Amino acid sequence: MDLSAINPVLLIASLMVAATPILLAAIGELVVEKAGVLNLGVEGMMIIGAIGGFAITVETGSPWLGFIASAACGAVFSLLFVLLTQVAQANQVASGLALTLFGLGLSALLGQSYVGIKPPQMGKLEIPFLSDLPVIGPILFGHDPILYIGIALTAGVWALLKYSRVGLVLRAVGENHDAAHALGYKVVRIRILAIMFGGACAGLGGAYISLIRVPQWTEGMTAGVGWIALALVVFSSWKPWRALLGAYLFGGITVVQLNLQAAGVAIPVEYLAMSPYVITIIVLVILSADKSSAPAALGRNFHASR
Amino acid sequence: MKLTTLLTSAAMALGLATTAMAADKTKVGFVYVGPVGDGGWTYEHDQGRKAVVEAFGDKVETVYVENVAEGPDSERVMTQMALEGADLIFTTSFGYMDPTINVAKKFPNVRFEHATGYKTAPNVSTYSARFYEGRAVQGTIAGHMTESNIVGYIGSFPIPEVVRGINSAYIHAKKVNPDVQFKIVWAFTWFDPAKEADAAKVLIEQGADVILQHTDSTAPQAAAQTAGNVITFGQASDMSEYGPKPRVSSIIDNWGPYYVARTQAVMDGTWESVMTWDGIGAGMVGIGDISDAVPAEVKAEAIALQASLADGSYHAFTGPISKQDGSAWLADGETADDGTLAGMNFFVEGIEGEIPQ
Fold first, then answer.
1. B67:A221 CB<8 A
2. d(CA A159, CA A190)
3. Residue of chain B nearest A108, judged by CA positions
4. What are the tens digits of pLDDT across the range B127-159?
5. B35, A11: Cβ pair inside 8 Å?
6. Is the separation of the CB atoms in B308 and B282 below 8 Å?
7. What residues of B are in contact with residue A7 (Cβ under 8 Å)?
8. Where would you find the membrane-spanning parts of this chain (chain A) (predicted)?
9. ipTM here
10. Which CATH superfamily is domain B20-130+255-278 in?
């Protein structure tokens, strides 16, 4: 065992990177579910964002354009879910699963010619003086901009849901769509916007994997991150800061356990390998002991005539 | 009652008719653990499938299913293939072993070929390649090239196949560099690019400047490239898009000739259950071009080793070798028998860490 081989600064810096795709997808899905829609297509929207962002970055040479494109791809792709559930009134669970399957297949098709290409890199944030600080510099000020966007998005969604009128309306739609409708709010329109926001976030998360975390395009490269994000939303009791905590815990422990393995710590590897799941669930279940429950209208379709 | 009987017999007749029609074409099924575009393991199996199509043209029909989880779900996929009239089914991952045996029992007339396993039945063959010969070449290059004397190894699952590779690479790295140390990380997945990249980054952060991988995607190559002064080896496929550096060489699986031969055997009616285990000599394991990032004398040594493995004059596990606990395994000059190699569940002396059980 040689714990000194682990550099805590690099460790914390890389766990933040590992957590960001999950965080982005979870925040998006949180807003969707707060509006009363259960979209199980997160994985599909992520991988569409991953290939969309990757392709645009390679073609234009600009990672920024790539990330914008990935958000747009995710949002446009989620319109399929909108069409199925909000217009055609199809079952949300089935539609979400279909979205995931379709997304995985479509991305594999679109990505055929992008296998083995290296994308241009997005520069790290360089703040004079701050980025050069020992310890704090690499941890707090030495990342790519998207990571900060993830954190800012969490804060934004939290403030929006908690303090703004828009957040209040969104929550009303998610809790009781009939009442919201009776008050004159456009339930379907609000839900469509929420779903598109969720799609854009998932797309960003996917592109974060293909452009920064790995960085390359491989078929099926999200490998289940979307499902983790979905589970995280539930375990975090639909609260943005808890979703952030959960994402950092999960991403963090994933990286920590790999570090411990490499350092040869005498804990059986099986326990290390399952630790991200177990610890994240335990912590979030303990936190959710207060009486916060799911949005009451979650997963229920709305039609004005009923 | 009469109507149902009539319908049943009609359905049966129809079923028989379709089977008879399908018999004209030999139907070959492939079960893949990852996507065909993974750039590694599954990609090479699919190249093998394409070789079958090319060799037989209209006489053969191939089907494949990607991303099949190891375990019960694979049983469903195989059953489905058998029901759809497949004559020969290749199951291409270690974790399909028991499911293959189970499904084979239910379909005695369908032939199964399971990759990298050790259980056979009258209608189940196993086939694998001696990847450890390729690992010996990699270990030699790694031992010479490492400056930090730390070699990182990304393992997938703790199965004999992977353990063998680690041992072989370690023995040969140690031979040319007595100070070399292996850091091993188990990813517990065959295919998860993000996790594989994380594992590579962790190893690099902990000082490794050579990364060996036994997972299927090219993600560790990308991570090594981003990190800079690190070398890697292509796994299962050439991964030459990451050359000349970080990827300095590779192990290439070449399944095509075997798949073609086995399909031919089914067509001729000469198919028998066999255990095939071929190496560099038979061409099932290829060593990818060693790039110019490797010094000429190291390259020459690696090529000489490759040649001696190919003509059988040298065995990758030649004694004296002790097990990790210090007990003797192979005496001086003794070579390992295939039985021990096939079920290898121990590290050799010098490797730190335990194999997860």
1. no
2. 18
3. B37
4. 999 999 999 999 999 999 999 999 999 999 998
5. no
6. no
7. 205-206
8. 6-25, 37-58, 64-84, 96-115, 135-161, 192-214, 220-238, 245-265, 271-289
9. 0.80
10. Response regulator (3.40.50.2300)
